[in-house]
Amino acid sequence: MKHITEVLKDGITVHDVLVNLKEREKDFQQGMSFLQRGETILHLFPDIYKAQVEQGENHFNGMAVLPGSASPHFIGNPVKWHENLFNDAEYTYFLNRMDHWRSMLEAYSLTGDNKYAGKVMEEFYHWIENCPRQPLYDESGNVIVENFGGCGCNQGIWRSLEIGIRMYRTWPDMIHHLIDTSYIDENFLEIYLTSLYQHAEVLYIIPPILWPKADHNHYLMENNGLLYLSCMFPEFKDSELWKQHALNELERSIFAQVTTGGGQIEGCPSYHNGCLYWFVLPILLSKKYHFTISNDYRKRLERMVEYSVHATRPCGGNYPWGDSNTFTGTFTWGAFCHYLAFGDSSYIAQARTYYRYEELEKAASKYIWEVDDLSDLHRVLKNTKECPALPVLPAFSWQKDLKQVFIRTDWSQNALSLMFACRTPIQNAHAHMDPAGFDFTAYGRPLLTDPAIFCFRDDEDRRKFKSIHWHNCLTLNHQDPWKYISSWDYGPQQPGDILSVSSTERLMYAAAEHLSYTPAIHKRVVALVDKRFLLVLDLLDKVVPDSSVQINFHIDSPTVMADSERRLARSLSNEANIGIFSDGQAVPSLIPARRSTRDDVAHDTMIAQFEAEHLAGGRHGFVSIAYPVPAGIALPDVTDICKEFRTDGLFLVSFRIDEHDYHLSLHQNELTILL
């Protein structure tokens, strides 16, 4: 570790830094100390106060929830920084982000109880002593990138992502909450600054090597960390260099990572909403530390909240696409981040349509220490509680760059709603194996669900949750569309894309095609028909003789029945249900599966797999009708499902639902209801 005189500008002493820091913090806190902010939170948001104090007390007692365990466990006293208690790489990553410090510091500012502050300081000094940084350079002066890129770097303690997160999320809070206490003295500051400098060296050098295209969410957090510490401490000899580098890279990142449609490039709704905050943070810092963010940056950022709306299920929660779940990283986060950046609370009111007030308040608590005007936030939440609002966006969105489509019959909670995607090749390994897959909700609950993320561990659970066989997808010969190598590694992928999207009064549909089973070509059309049911058409061309096809429907219920004679599978729930009716070619069977709502939490579900075997070579078409019904309503009779390939290229489909006859034609990528 360098001596303090080597990291500060010439002539600057630690005493100077402390004096300057106290003045900057007065400006940063804008006339309200964090202790005063704590008193205001108690007065205006008693439920948030109670929850944050309870969380702080749990962490004071060494109890935390970390990857590998869904329930609180003891992390040690002193903390076992190096120990991976659950054989999950994310465990030591998360532990060394020190989020438990943040909650204890908040508990201090809420209660004034020094025990919380003292515990954080005790752990800080213990971490400094026991977790030294690995060398940044070898003896020849070459950068040792692998020292900062994964678990091998001291159990991930000094992974560049964790360095970035510490610098923007937890270590600054030691200053913000404790600046007026005796804990922040020159002795502390010398140790703190020299360690910060070590963090900054890594953040300036390593991330551009790891992410040269600026196209990953890690790069945002790493540059936010560098930006934050350079703003907090302009006395560092390299602070201006770091600050300009971070700002340039964050500007580059928003255009590399956020599409013109507003979606974050990885295509995972949870990560999108996380990135929304990471893109908002520079704007918050620009207000506190008086620098400029470009208008182009702001305009691109404004579009992100629209994707957050479209990626919300009518019943609440995200479409859990890729490494997303429905519990965290939701529209509630996106709405509050948009409010923080632009002062626009309309999306908070829209989020209230899909989330309980308590969930909105919980999201607000995540950002409450960054809100400039707590009285305005109180007003916003009070108005939202009484007057939720429906979104005013179109009922469908084609995210062309992400190869995703969102379709819903309306913006009510009972709407029929569909996410459909065909993104191959993938952006990165946060994507799952789901070409031409979908997630379908109706009547207030998910019915045909994406399994979501369960964990990042390189184990059988991870493989199953990412597997095409647990997604609403078609497979040939039970094969994967591409090779699954490990949690973070796939084999090469073939092209795939959304071909067309259309919306009329009776028909809302999208068509996709991919070449994952070359030489076979798979085209899928999904359609919401008459705002009543989901039609799925699967067309295969160039099929190898004697192949088999499996069409999987992931039913969000553990209780499902299959009727081979009727070519039917249906859920048997006390809530809304769904029946899947297939043409006579595919026979249903049931396969137990699971879906997840948050990390390390899973619930039993069932795959209804419709299989046709010993196919002739050439062209085939399959018709599936997924009919949802509200709780207590019987399924209709779906009969007389017929299909025909015509010589003029049309694929004709007909069927009867109760006494109503349907006739549809598919020509290339255009689906039509025939009168």
Overall description:
- The protein is an alpha+beta fold and 675 residues long.
- It is built from 18 helices and 25 strands.
- Strands 11-12-13-14-21-18-17-16 form an eight-stranded antiparallel β-sheet, with no helix packed on it.
The order of strands across the largest sheet is 11-12-13-14-21-18-17-16
What is the approximate shape?
Answer: elongated
User: Low-confidence runs (pLDDT<50, min 5 residues)?
Assistant: none
Radius of gyration from the alpha-carbon trace, in angstroms: 27 Å
The biggest beta sheet reads: 8 strands, antiparallel
| Whole-number mean pLDDT | 96
| Discrete helix count | 18
Number of strands: 25
Cα-to-Cα separation, first versus last residue: 78 Å
Helix content: 25-40%
- What structural class do you assign from the helix and strand content? alpha+beta
Strand content: 15-25%
Key terms:
25 strands; elongated; 675 residues; alpha+beta; eight-stranded antiparallel β-sheet
Short description:
By secondary structure, this protein is an alpha+beta fold.
Secondary structure elements and their pairing?
Blueprint: H1 4-7, H2 14-29, H3 34-44, H4 46-60, E1 63-64, E2 73-74, H5 89-95, H6 99-111, H7 114-130, H8 160-178, H9 186-210, H10 217-232, H11 239-257, H12 269-289, H13 295-310, H14 331-342, H15 346-354, H16 357-367, H17 374-386, E3 396-399, E4 404-408, E5 417-421, E6 437-442, E7 445-448, H18 460-466, E8 474-476, E9 484-486, E10 489-490, E11 496-503, E12 507-514, E13 521-529, E14 533-543, E15 547-555, E16 560-563, E17 568-571, E18 577-582, E19 587-598, E20 601-615, E21 618-629, E22 638-645, E23 650-657, E24 660-667, E25 670-673
Antiparallel strand pairs: 1-2, 3-4, 4-5, 5-6, 6-7, 8-15, 9-10, 11-12, 12-13, 13-14, 14-21, 15-20, 16-17, 17-18, 18-21, 19-20, 22-23, 23-24, 24-25
Helix pairs in contact: 3-4, 3-6, 4-6, 6-7, 6-8, 8-9, 8-10, 9-10, 10-11, 10-12, 12-13, 12-14, 13-14, 14-15, 14-16, 15-17
